[in-house]
Sequence to fold (625 residues):
Amino acid sequence: MANVGELEALLRPPAMEMPDYPPKVITLASGERMVVRQVAREEVPFLLEAIYPLLLVERDFYDVVGARLYGELLAYKRYRVKDEYVLAGLIDGELAGMVNGRLVDNKTGMSYHTLTIRRGLRVGSHLFAAKMEYHIEHCGQEEVLIVAESPIGFRRWMIEYPLEKKFDVQHELGGVPSWVLPRDTYFAAKPRLVAGHRPVPDELLEKAETIVLPAQETVVRQVAGEKEGQR
Amino acid sequence: MRPVYIAGAGMTTFGRSEWSLIKLASVASLSALHHADLGEIPVDGVVVANMGAARVNKQTALGSALVDQLALHPAAAESVENGPASGASAFKVGVQAIASGMADVVLVTGVERMRVVNGLEGTDFVASLSHPEAEYIYGVTLPSLAGMFARLVMDRFGIERRHLAMVAIKNHENATKNPYAHIQQTITMEGILTLPEAAVNNPPIAEPLHLFDCCPVSDGAASVVLVSADVAAKLGGPRVLVAGIGQATDTHAVHEREDPTDLKAVRLASEKAFAMAGLAPSDIDVAELHDAFTILEIAESEAAGFFPRGEGHKALERGETALDGRLPINPSGGLKAKGHPVGATGVAHLVELTWQLRGEAGDRQVPAAAAGYACNFGGFGNNVVATVLKREAE
Fold:
């Protein structure tokens, strides 16, 4: 019988070499500067804490996205998903949103989720674009498989880029017929949809080093679009 | 005509609501009735303004529904649909009822719950106000009409996108001082116009209009309580007189107008309202304009008579329309940031003016405001109601 270490090695998916995502900074409509950076495996518990209150928010499919993202990040933390990565958007260190995905192989990426906490400033659009940038420009992939779980996602990804149908492929998120962002479409959309500057100034990078979580009540209120004291 | 006063005003927060249509209307109504503090004085009539409930909420006869919900029987009940000018039209119906002597107390409530449908359906429902054969069947929407209008006006008068951005920035700033506003988020010129990121932050909707040139789609309700002079005297407290109301129409299809850049119905409605009030535009201390698109605030500010034609953007640039300017426009945040629940908007204008004239507008209070003007812009300028309110000494 194999010992625990050997068994664990069998349970873990094999890993590919993955490049780091170089952080960038984006000025939002509000004038605030959002740093987009990769989130290390050991930082995942912070993200899980932020997602947790959203599991019961039905609005705009936050419950479905939140529950799936929670599982994906947990699996990433505990080595139960192959070649996953997570990027976060941080405004003065405070978590504004996150995106994740994984590499299927050298040529194909699998986009998982985009979850925005700070709504109304196109944080989700910027983070999704950063995810595509990572797959195409940094990992050098040919295409990214994408589905949307909410009408908002459909508008943002399928229509705005625009994505192509690849319905013969079932996406990992629920087996939904997949859409795809090919490399050339990404570069065509890049001037309209991909923003940001590098290198990130030191003072901003320093602030973005530690993830600050908004209060749970604030997260739910922002996501649900409620005003303070109105429920 | 008997004089008519606004004795109370109230509204719900604007935004995206889980409340039913009638609950939204009820909460705003109760808030206005509480503000009016009528005591045992009965409500004679209820007028409800709404544009899309029959289509998006599957509910009609809202006046009757609200009377029942608030147990105001046997008050008379009316429902008014006049596109985006429904609110001010309903207000006019209420004013007429009191001015004619048919009623002493009328509750006017505007309500819309349009976030129950997706953006495409919402845009289509609002576009149904356009000319069916000349505009709608060709895919014309309100943003596209506004885009074409903006292009013409900007070319003619040298208005630049930065001027439109100034309107948006001002109104977003004002909305941060309004707890009822849909969007309470400041924006910057860099973030929406000048930095490279602005292309992503502020994408085109209908060129030259971009995302931050357009109002949000909102749910919400607003109410005012209108009373006769006799009732106003019994209630005491600050008196806000409905000094003037004017309404005017223009061709349904925008392209049939002699000069599509001339908001003729705004001009004529405003002239009537000022004439009835015995006031001039220069007498106005605060204005609420129908800035469903930023360009409309500039164009309406000229058509209403506050600035010469082609000069509105210059006044804006000089800061004259800022909260601390000579004529603060849209201290509430306007449709741009306070939000635009279509049928409620015209009433919400008058709620804001009432609070301003009573000195109850909190952090966005215009000092010593004594006269206010509102423009409720229906259709694409083909049916406009202008109102002038005046504070009277107690």
The longest strand of chain B covers residues 239-249. Chain B has a mean pLDDT of 97. Chain B touches chain A through 25 residues (CB under 8 Å). Chain B has 15 helices and eleven strands.
